C-alpha cells in the first residue's frame, strides 16, 4: 500500500507541475484501490473526459469542473482509484469527510479521505468506496459533489460526465494490454 501512495504522490507532483503550466488539473485517486476489469474501447479523449499517460507512472482519466477535477488513476500494475482535486482548498492528510454525490440519476453519501494538499493547486481527496463511485459516475451524465468546507459553508463541485465511460474503459484496456506485454 505504501508504494501505491508513493506512486500517487509522484504522479500528483507531475500533475501539479502540468496544472500550473496549463491552468488545468487532472483528477487522480490514491488510497483505496481496485483491480481493473477488461474493457474494449480505445479512446484517447471523448466528450469532457481525456486519458493521459503520466511520465510512465500510470494513466489518468479525468475531467475538469468549476471547482476542480474529478478522475480515476490506474497504476501500471492495474490498481485503480477515484479522486477529486479541489482547487485552492486545503486539508490535512488522513482527514475523512462526508460528501453528497448528486447525479441526474441518483444521490448518495460517500466518504472522502485527504491524500494531501499540493501548493498552488489544491487538495486531493480519495473516495473510500471505489465500486460505489465507479457505478455512480458510469450511469450518469452530470454530477455535483457537495463538500463541507472549514467554515459552515458547503461547496459544490460540478462535473460533466459525457465521455467518462469511453475514457475509463480506454484507460483500463491500455493498462491491461501493457501488463500483458510486461
Low-confidence sequence ranges? 1-8, 13-43
Secondary-structure arrangement, i.e. CATH architecture: Sandwich
**General shape:** globular
Count every helix, treating DSSP H or I runs of 4 or more residues as helices.
Answer: 3
Structural class from helices and strands?
alpha+beta
Order of helices and strands: HEEEEEEEEEHEEH
Give the strand content: 35-45%
Which class in CATH terms?
Mainly Beta
- Helicity level, as a percent range? 25-40%
Provide the CATH superfamily: Invasion associated locus B (IalB) protein
Question: What composes the largest sheet?
Answer: 11 strands, antiparallel
Label this structure with key terms.
single chain, alpha+beta, disordered N terminus, Immunoglobulin-like, 182 residues, 11-stranded antiparallel sheet
What does this structure look like?
The protein has 3 helices and 11 strands; from the N terminus they run H-E-E-E-E-E-E-E-E-E-H-E-E-H. By secondary structure, it is α+β, with helices and mostly antiparallel strands. It has a single domain, classed as Immunoglobulin-like (Sandwich). Strands 1, 2, 3, 4, 5, 6, 7, 8, 9, 10 and 11 form an 11-stranded antiparallel sheet that branches. A hairpin with a 2-residue loop joins strand 2 and strand 3. The longest helix is centred in the first third of the chain and has 21 residues. The protein is globular and about 50 Å long. The N terminus is likely disordered.
Amino acid at each position: 500500500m505504501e508504494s501505491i501512495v508513493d506512486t500517487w504522490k509522484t504522479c500528483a507532483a507531475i500533475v501539479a507541475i502540468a496544472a500550473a503550466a496549463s491552468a488545468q488539473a487532472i483528477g487522480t485517486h490514491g488510497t483505496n484501490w481496485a483491480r481493473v476489469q477488461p474493457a474494449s474501447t480505445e479512446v484517447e479523449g471523448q466528450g469532457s473526459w481525456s486519458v493521459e499517460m503520466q511520465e510512465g507512472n500510470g494513466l489518468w482519466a479525468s475531467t475538469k469542473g468549476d471547482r476542480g477535477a474529478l478522475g480515476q488513476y490506474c497504476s501500471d500494475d492495474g490498481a485503480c482509484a477515484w479522486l477529486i482535486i479541489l482547487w485552492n482548498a486545503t486539508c490535512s492528510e488522513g482527514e475523512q469527510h462526508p460528501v453528497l454525490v448528486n447525479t441526474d440519476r441518483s444521490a448518495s453519501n460517500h466518504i472522502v479521505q485527504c491524500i494531501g494538499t499540493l501548493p498552488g493547486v489544491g487538495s486531493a481527496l480519495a473516495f473510500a468506496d471505489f465500486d460505489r463511485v465507479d457505478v455512480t459516475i458510469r450511469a450518469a451524465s452530470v454530477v455535483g459533489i457537495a463538500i463541507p468546507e472549514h467554515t459552515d459553508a458547503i461547496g459544490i463541485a460540478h462535473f460533466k460526465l459525457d465521455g467518462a465511460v469511453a475514457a475509463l474503459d480506454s484507460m483500463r484496456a491500455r493498462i491491461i494490454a501493457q501488463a500483458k506485454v510486461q
